[in-house]
Amino acid sequence: MLLRWVAATVTLAACGGARSGGATSAASSDPAPQRADRRPACITPPDDGSKITHATVDGTKVAYCVGSDRECFALDTATGKLERLGGPPKPAGASNARVETTNPDLKVCSFGSCTSLTPKVLPNASTIVGAANPDGTFAVFLLGDAKAGRGYAEVWDVATTKKTATFRYARGEFRCGEVAVLEDTIFVSASMCDQPAARGGLYTLRGRKVANVGGKDFGTWGGAFARVDGPVWAFLEENGNQLVIQDVVTGKVKKTIDTSLLFKDGGAAMGNPGESAIVRLADGRLAIVAGAPASGSVATVEVETGAVTVMPVPRCGQ
């Protein structure tokens, strides 16, 4: 949203669940999808890209939109049945905390209460990207001139409105950041600013770097990730063709899973960068929703065995 007083863009990423291409999602038994649409349950890949948004879970169903809030679907991973929705699915299991701007104020809100950090954060900012931990006790802001390589992160204790840590996150040409807070670990995805490529880093709330996400050259453009269990999270490579299972507290990569099979039906070994999404199903499996060229197809992943099962979706006109 645009904070006109300082011409700043704030990216919201308060994360207790999973962020999928810019949307927060998590497994839940609460009803997630909107009402069904009577149009045929088939997908026409958009001409301008197939970014998956609003990805969420309702039992065995994965609900999502493809390239537009008017093209939304729910796929039952138990039966393979695709259903067209009348609108974006309702988020399930969202975090209690969020970073909020109401011009000209910058706030961290949780459980109906908001704390303003405007006078302390904004005087040093022209562009702000912010996120809060699930209970809203800490907030992280990416500040500075990122494109010039002078971007840095500040960690704030919301209750005391005091800054507790500062660290730099740029990695060479990867300078422009997006941020999420995975319980007590900060995830910064640093991009090439004007190009769809990024590299991720994990940091403690004290600003100490834990590890690179997925290793040195693992792409994180689009910031698609989901919690597996405890401190273990799954990060989807920016092209959707690889999945890393990593402990965000120790930084240890526990497993790497090849998910390129998801795009085989589209005649490719990988997808467009930043278009695919990932969520965790109620039974513990992970579900990857593909962007182009396999727009809307879903792959389920057994974390323990690494088994990948692809469910192609019907294409309109075929």
Outline the structure in words.
The chain is an all-beta fold and 318 residues long. It has one helix spanning 118-121; strands at residues 2-3, 8-9, 18-20, 23-25, 52-58, 61-66, 72-76, 82-85, 97-102, 105-110, 113-116, 129-132, 138-145, 150-157, 162-168, 176-182, 185-191, 198-204, 209-212, 225-229, 232-236, 242-247, 253-258, 277-280, 286-289, 298-301, 308-311. It has a four-stranded antiparallel β-sheet with strand order 5-6-7-8, with no helix packed on it. Strands 12-13-14-15 form a four-stranded antiparallel β-sheet, with no helix packed on it. It has a four-stranded antiparallel β-sheet with strand order 16-17-18-19, with no helix packed on it. The termini are far apart.
Please supply descriptive tags for the structure shown above.
318 residues; mainly beta; 4-stranded antiparallel β-sheet; 1 helix; 27 strands; globular
Concise account of the structure shown:
The protein is mainly beta. The chain has 1 helix and 27 strands.
What is the strand arrangement across the widest sheet?
5-6-7-8
The geometry reads as: globular
Number of helices: 1
Q: Helix share of residues? A: under 10%
The chain-level structural class is mainly beta
Taking the sheet with the most strands, its summary is: 4 strands, antiparallel
- Calculate Rg over CA atoms: 19 Å
The end-to-end distance, rounded to whole angstroms, is: 39 Å
Number of strands: 27
Strand content: 35-45%
